[in-house]
Amino acid sequence: MNSLCRTLASEEPTITSIALRPGVVDTEMQAQLRSEAKQVMNSPNYKHFHKLYENSKLVAPEQPAEVITNLLVRADTKHTPVFFYHLFLFILI
């Protein structure tokens, strides 16, 4: 995704190109993973996702949604190319 973002920004300088990774978001998919995936996932991965839940480390869906909305409304070519990792940590004005 980062490579595509950089290439797009290079080839189309008038387009804002931003790659996002919001972290592990607390969705129904995460709940399903914890309840059904133990038999099919390898143990370290399953434990990792379960521990994130147990330690309240999942990101509320509203957090990345707010940042993505701000990016859609306010980002311009000066933000391109950029990669946001755990984008909920960023406060955009």
Automatic annotation (TrEMBL):
SUPFAM superfamilies: NAD(P)-binding Rossmann-fold domains
InterPro entries for the chain: NAD(P)-bd_dom_sf (IPR036291)
Protein name, as recorded: Uncharacterized protein
Taxonomic classification: Eukaryota, Fungi, Dikarya, Basidiomycota, Pucciniomycotina
